[in-house]
From TrEMBL:
Organism: Paenibacillus endophyticus
Pfam families: HAD_2 (PF13419)
Single GO biological process annotation from the record: DNA repair
A single cellular component GO annotation: cytosol
Protein's name in the database: HAD superfamily hydrolase (TIGR01549 family)
Keyword terms: Hydrolase
Any one GO molecular-function label of the UniProt entry: phosphoglycolate phosphatase activity
InterPro entries registered for this protein in UniProt: HAD-like_hydrolase_sf (IPR050155), HAD-like_sf (IPR036412), HAD-SF_hydro_IA (IPR006439), HAD_2 (IPR041492), HAD_sf (IPR023214), PGP-like_dom2 (IPR023198)
Length: 218
């Protein structure tokens, strides 16, 4: 195994938990335009496409899709500070890794528009060398297309790059890419606690992950 020089992170469930604001905003547009209630389990069941694609695909009132997407983005931005915590531990992790010289990238299934809102709200707009969202790939996770695009764009080698995520799709994408893959279970709500493909290690503590990565950079 090579030393660690670069880290590709998943976003939701790994660096931030935007599910509460995403669910609130999605449920709101379905309530207003379809006059139906959807649960967070309903959203989990169709997860994979971006938030905007979920609305575009599943809203029954087809004439209101454009308006619903616009309302969703407004609600997502207006309620972000209220419903999404900016973790000081994650902020410190990113700062420490940057100062130590690690390359950092982001591969998320979120839409570019919602991710941009979240990064601005969390003040992480300049933390990453490259970002791939669900809008940037033809095949979403568990495909490794996004990982390949990051490696190709930045010229990073697999030998010196790791992938960190929280879900089964993340573990499968890392395996497909031939990457050392690690599971983050340090959020209060973990999407998947058991994996179809075992990661190299599972971390439930951010500080332990930081110490491990720094030790592997020697």
């Amino acid at each position: 195994m090579g030393t660690i020089k670069h880290i590709i992170f998943d976003f939701d469930g790994t660096l931030a938990d935007t599910w509460p604001v995403m669910y609130m905003a999605v449920a709101g547009v379905f309530r207003r335009h379809d006059r139906r209630e959807i649960s967070i389990e309903d959203i989990y069941a169709v997860a994979g496409p971006t938030e905007l694609q979920i609305i575009e695909t599943h809203l029954r009132n087809r004439e209101q899709v454009k308006a619903a997407v616009s309302e969703f983005l407004t609600d997502y931005e207006q309620h972000h500070d209220e419903l999404v915590e900016r973790s000081s531990a994650i902020a410190e992790l990113l700062r420490t890794l940057r100062e130590a010289g690690f390359g950092l990238a982001l591969f998320t299934g979120k839409s570019r528009r919602t991710l941009d809102i979240s990064l601005e709200k969390l003040r992480w707009e300049t933390e990453f060398d490259h970002i791939i969202t669900g809008d940037d790939v033809e095949k979403r996770k568990p495909s490794a297309e996004g990982i390949h695009r990051i490696l190709d764009k930045l010229g990073w080698s697999r030998e010196h790059t790791i992938f960190v995520g929280d879900s089964n799709d993340d573990m499968l994408a890392g395996q497909e890419a031939g990457m050392r893959t690690f599971a983050a279970q340090w959020m209060s709500i973990v999407q998947d606690k058991h994996y179809l493909v075992e990661p190299e290690r599972i971390f439930s503590d951010i500080g332990a992950f930081q110490a491990f990565v720094l030790s592997q950079a020697q």
